[in-house]
Amino acid sequence: MTGRVVPAGGLERFALNSATTKHWPLPDLVAGCVEAGVTQVGLWREDLVAPGPTGAASLLRDAGLTVTSLCRGGFFTTPDWYDDNRRAIEEAATIGAPELVLVSGGLPPGSRDLDGTRDRITEAIGRLVPDALAAGVRLAIEPLHPMFASDRCAVSTLGQALDMAELFPVAAVGVVVDTYHVWWDPDVWRQIARAADRIACFQLADWITPLPAGVLLGRGLPGTGCVDMARFVRAVDAAGYTGPVEVEVFHEEVWARPGAEVLAEAVEGYRAAMAG
Amino acid sequence: MTGRVVPAGGLERFALNSATTKHWPLPDLVAGCVEAGVTQVGLWREDLVAPGPTGAASLLRDAGLTVTSLCRGGFFTTPDWYDDNRRAIEEAATIGAPELVLVSGGLPPGSRDLDGTRDRITEAIGRLVPDALAAGVRLAIEPLHPMFASDRCAVSTLGQALDMAELFPVAAVGVVVDTYHVWWDPDVWRQIARAADRIACFQLADWITPLPAGVLLGRGLPGTGCVDMARFVRAVDAAGYTGPVEVEVFHEEVWARPGAEVLAEAVEGYRAAMAG
């Protein structure tokens, strides 16, 4: 496979995030995307382990695929956060990902100091800014749903992510708008308008209930839940965002199905959101 | 048992919410509270079914117990919401509960219209205001954690609850501050200060992980999780709140234990929060 595949009509902004098809090995995912006329993928660092970042870059380039984002840096409460995040920035640069998604991590063990934790996250991001600028990779702060505040991400709203991002140059720090995490927020429409060129990554996943134990793997493919996807597309577009629209879903039942089938449904959900 | 029991030192503001000891029948709960020097309880409508509201009122009065709140009205998307909420107001008046907690309900089946749902909730509360004023019972809007937004409560933040409450007289509509639901909110301290005399009910429950499937029954007794309870006590006190401090926990493991034992731990958590 060489050369750039012309996308099927209307897929110009679609990107498959590899977490949606977690058990699809990278070479198969790449072939499947080419087959479906998909030209953009969001990747995770796990995807880069087997081929190595350089090998992954060749694989993607040869197939004409571009990388929209790399997940993830962050987890700033772990002891080796600085070195690990610098490696993540390098990996993003190597595969040509313009955005590195940051999931901040939650409270340190035994802590009840949420404000202090949030301050330390901001400081940590500030320390990474020079590395990000040097590498030409933007740090994309992702607010996660408040149900993850204690154990996964102390950044809980888009407004809060923007308060952090705006301390730094727009070329260095942006934010992620993931419908799954922010759909409930009465302030989200105002914050999306405020975000404007800080929107580094836009992801679709749907809210479905009941939530499973641990709540991490409860996301639905776009269109299967109660989120008004089309309204989010209109909102980010109105804010001036013209970048990719990634589908990123975590769900055991989705993961158990063939990658190509899931990709087709992700495309279908994307098309419905874009048409709405 | 007749006459008012003098509370043990420092328990003047403590209230046991009966959901914490779900399987303790009301007569046993009443006796257990008297035994422990507890003089205030928050009740649920289920507690009133066996004795009837008038019978429950007698039982409580004879034991010298006062009722801090009744849970719950709300669920405004169900067909009979108006009649059911009027009955709830009557029941609250009968047992002497000054506050009726409202859990609004989530999206109607198949709906993705969160804004519209929130507007209808506000309208429904407005329709109940005359009944509440006539009965001398305040409607207490409870914001629930955003993980319940779709299926249980579309009111997701304290700020949003206050936006609704402030449309009506302070004697008619207040808000609930439940640490479990609002602890993650970066704006909560400002909103508590704003709430002032709208604070109709203050409840303690702790955030513990991992969350169980369905996420309803994942709350910890105060002190067992990561919420800074003492900071919440200081915040509501600084806002001018002088009312009861209820412990309200939902957890299968807590429910499986003897009521008196759970009550003792609830008191212990309350004391730690008040001392902090």
Automatic annotation (TrEMBL), chains A, B:
Organism: Longispora fulva
Top-level taxon of the source organism: Bacteria
Record's keyword annotation contains Isomerase: yes
PANTHER family: HYDROXYPYRUVATE ISOMERASE (PTHR12110), XYLOSE ISOMERASE (PTHR12110:SF52)
SUPFAM superfamilies per record: Xylose isomerase-like
Descriptive protein name: Sugar phosphate isomerase/epimerase
Molecular function in Gene Ontology: isomerase activity
Domain Xylose isomerase-like TIM barrel: 34-265
Entries under InterPro entries matching the protein: IolE/XylAMocC-like, Xyl_isomerase-like_sf, Xyl_isomerase-like_TIM-brl
Key words of the record: Isomerase
